[in-house]
Specification:
two-stranded antiparallel sheet, mainly alpha, rod-shaped
C-alpha cells in the first residue's frame, strides 16, 4: 500500500499542479515584463513632460527677456524724442524771443528819435521794457507808454521833437511817416545791430 494520502501510486506531486505552477510563473514573468515596459513608457512620458516644461519655461523666459528689452528700448526712444522735442521748443522760443527783442529795440530807437532823443540808443538801453510785448501779429504793445514815462523821468535825454517839413538852414526835414507806419529807412542808415534785427524779422515772417 502507498503512503500518499491522494492515492498517487508513486507518492509524487500532481502533474496538473506542476503545470499550473509553471504556467503561473510564466504569467508572472510576462506581467513583470509588461509592468517594466509600462514603467519605462511612464518614465519616458514624465521625462518628455519635464523637458516640455523646461522648454516652455525657457521660451517663456526668453519672451519675457525680449519684451523687457523692447520696453526698455521703447522707453529710451520715447525719452530721447521728448528731450529732442523740448530742446526744439526751447530753441524756437529762444529764436522768437531774440527776434522780438531785436524788433522791439529797433522800433524803440526809431520812436525815441521821433520824440527828440539826443541819443536813442542810450534811451532804449535805460528803457523799462517789462511792459513791452510783441504780439503774434507782430504789433508792439506798451512801447509808447514806456517811452512817455522815460521822457518824463529823464527829460534831459530829450530835446525838441523834429517838426515835420520844417526848414533848418538849407536842410528840410523829411515828411512825417503815415500814422501807424514805421519810418522808411535805407540799409545804409541802419546800424549793424538794426540791420541784423531787421534781417531776423524778415526771415521769421517768411
Amino acid at each position: 500500500m502507498s503512503d500518499d494520502p491522494n492515492g498517487s501510486p508513486d507518492g509524487g506531486a500532481d502533474p496538473n499542479t506542476a503545470r499550473e505552477l509553471q504556467r503561473a510563473r510564466a504569467d508572472l514573468t510576462a506581467l513583470r515584463s509588461e509592468l517594466k515596459a509600462i514603467r519605462g513608457e511612464r518614465d519616458a512620458a514624465v521625462t518628455e513632460r519635464d523637458d516640455a516644461i523646461k522648454s516652455r519655461d525657457g521660451y517663456k523666459g526668453q519672451i519675457e527677456k525680449q519684451r523687457a528689452e523692447f520696453e526698455g528700448k521703447l522707453a529710451d526712444q520715447t525719452k530721447a524724442a521728448d528731450e529732442a522735442k523740448t530742446a526744439a521748443e526751447q530753441a524756437l522760443a529762444g529764436v522768437r524771443e531774440a527776434s522780438d527783442r531785436a524788433v522791439i529795440e529797433a522800433e524803440a530807437k526809431a520812436a525815441a528819435t521821433r520824440l527828440g532823443a539826443h541819443n536813442p540808443a542810450d534811451v532804449v538801453r535805460l528803457l523799462d521794457m517789462s511792459g513791452v510785448k510783441r504780439g503774434e501779429d507782430g504789433a508792439i504793445a506798451g512801447l509808447d507808454e514806456a517811452l512817455t514815462a522815460a521822457k518824463e523821468a529823464r527829460a534831459y535825454m530829450f530835446g525838441e521833437a523834429p517838426k515835420p517839413g520844417a526848414m533848418t538852414g538849407t536842410t528840410q526835414s523829411p515828411a512825417p511817416p503815415k500814422p501807424g507806419a514805421p519810418p522808411k529807412e535805407t540799409v545804409r542808415e541802419l546800424s549793424t545791430a538794426e540791420y541784423e534785427a531787421r534781417k531776423r524779422q524778415f526771415v521769421a515772417n517768411l
